[in-house]
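Weekly sync, protein design subgroup
Attendees: M.S., D.O., the rotation student, P.L. (late)

Item 1: inverse folding check
M.S. brought a backbone from last month's batch and wanted to see whether the design step gives back something sensible before we order anything. D.O. pointed out we never logged the input encoding, so this time it goes straight into the notes. Structure tokens as presented (328 positions):
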């Protein structure tokens, strides 16, 4: 469900190894990935390494189980859970077992959140990403009085009511409302392609963010990712439509990671560069390279990128640029 995709933190991946306990057993180690906040509802990605022919049985500590070298599980409620992973051979014999306590914190009072993506002019996608709900019940998304899913809805120019409605763990109905603006704006595939080329050129030339010179160790090129581009376009369009300039949206409160998750990707790490007013790809990339924080993102440990240039006449800056970086 969209509001439960909290697998990874905003900037980095947290991992915790758990060694197998049995003496003389085959090599057996497990680990898990979880958001830095460790707050419910919390999605945890478990992974085990074991010899061929063995299987792992997971007991998550909340009455549910799974089998396989990899498993994902959602802890809906705060608490401390006793995790158990058991290594079983081809004959069904238990040969090793690992155990650990997994604390899941509270994110506070249950509340819905609405993340609005507008990746093309006239197109709106809604997500309940960012909600805090201690229950697996699926929220309802409404647009212009009609229930919609998380896919794209085409709308005419104007103001449209968006609503997310959810049931809390104690049976209350809660909702969040926003007025979505649909208005013309233009993008440029050519500008986006040139930003990508210049970004990868800086990586290939080993650009040094401190000395502003090339010649350092080359980095592999970033691969353009269409899902990250949806998140980038939502940010550029959001700034153009709602009049803010910030990584956190003044319209729906979404952050870079929240927009990426709402678009449908769950990366290990995410970073975002934004700019406004620059007239060309060369100008915007040079500006980012001369800024230490933006340069570190361009030269960072990422392997995918999403890009968006948006032009909307009559706005504060007119032209808005976004790069979204991710490590998968």
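Designed sequence read out in the meeting:
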């Amino acid at each position: 469900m969209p509001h439960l995709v909290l697998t990874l933190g905003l900037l980095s991946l947290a991992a915790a190894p758990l060694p197998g306990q049995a003496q003389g057993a085959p090599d057996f180690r497990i680990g898990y990935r979880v958001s830095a906040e460790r707050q419910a509802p919390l999605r945890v990605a478990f992974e085990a390494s074991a010899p061929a022919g063995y299987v792992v049985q997971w007991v998550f500590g909340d009455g549910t189980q799974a089998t396989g070298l990899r498993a994902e599980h959602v802890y809906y409620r705060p608490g401390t859970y006793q995790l158990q992973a058991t290594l079983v051979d081809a004959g069904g014999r238990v040969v090793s077992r690992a155990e650990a306590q997994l604390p899941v914190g509270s994110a506070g009072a249950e509340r819905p959140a609405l993340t609005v993506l507008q990746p093309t002019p006239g197109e709106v996608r809604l997500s309940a990403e960012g909600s805090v709900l201690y229950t697996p019940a699926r929220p309802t998304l409404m647009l212009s009085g009609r229930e919609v899913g998380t896919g794209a809805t085409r709308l005419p120019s104007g103001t449209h009511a968006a609503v997310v409605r959810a049931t809390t763990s104690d049976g209350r109905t809660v909702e969040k409302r926003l007025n979505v603006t649909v208005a013309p704006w233009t993008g440029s595939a050519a500008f986006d392609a040139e930003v990508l080329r210049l970004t990868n050129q800086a990586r290939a030339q080993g650009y040094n963010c401190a000395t502003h010179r090339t010649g350092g160790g080359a980095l592999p090129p970033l691969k353009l990712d269409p899902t990250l581009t949806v998140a980038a376009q939502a940010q550029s369009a959001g700034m153009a439509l709602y009049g803010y300039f910030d990584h956190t949206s003044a319209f729906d409160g979404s952050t870079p990671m929240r927009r990426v998750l709402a678009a449908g990707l769950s990366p290990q790490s995410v970073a975002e560069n934004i700019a406004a007013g620059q007239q060309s790809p060369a100008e915007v990339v040079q500006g980012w390279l001369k800024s230490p924080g933006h340069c570190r993102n361009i030269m960072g440990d990422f392997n995918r990128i999403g890009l968006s240039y948006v032009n909307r006449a009559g706005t504060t800056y007119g032209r808005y640029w976004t790069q979204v970086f991710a490590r998968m």
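Discussion: The first helix runs from residue 189 to 204. The two ends are 20 Å apart (CA to CA).
Action: P.L. to compare against the previous round before Friday.
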